[in-house]
Amino acid sequence: MKKIFYIISFGIITAMIVMASCGGDNGDGQLTPQQEQAQLLNGTWSHQNTTQSPQGVDPTILDQLSITFNIDANSNPTSFNSTGAPDFFVTVGSSKWAFSGSSTTSILLTDVAPVDQLTINSLTQSSLTLTFNFSSLRVAGLDGNYTVEMSK
Hints:
Layout: H1 2-21, H2 33-41, E1 43-52, E2 66-71, E3 77-83, E4 89-99, E5 106-114, E6 117-123, E7 127-134, E8 144-151
Antiparallel strand pairs: 1-2, 1-8, 2-3, 4-5, 5-6, 6-7, 7-8
């Protein structure tokens, strides 16, 4: 009788250990809203149109803008790169991007200047609209809010 009790106990303990060790990133295998948004952002985006710029600023100043958002294997934000608009986005060393808090629309940029925050107005697989504020002592006359439409 004791043997049967030990065998059953061993089986129950083994089953509990196996079940406890199984599981995904958040317990149910589902991506968080930020991971889903990061998957959509992942890749290189090219400027299509500037829909808002400060009065007196030539809207074609951002025509060469290209932004790359990268993610890791778990769909979390990693590196950031930008070309074509050096007055706005200077990336230094290992530039990174992340969502601000639990937001899926507010992006913080690290080791990027002078623009270090972006706001997502709309996002699909192939279309992105971003808003950012530019403020720099280095480049006079460009200060203000910008809205750009981009595509993959």
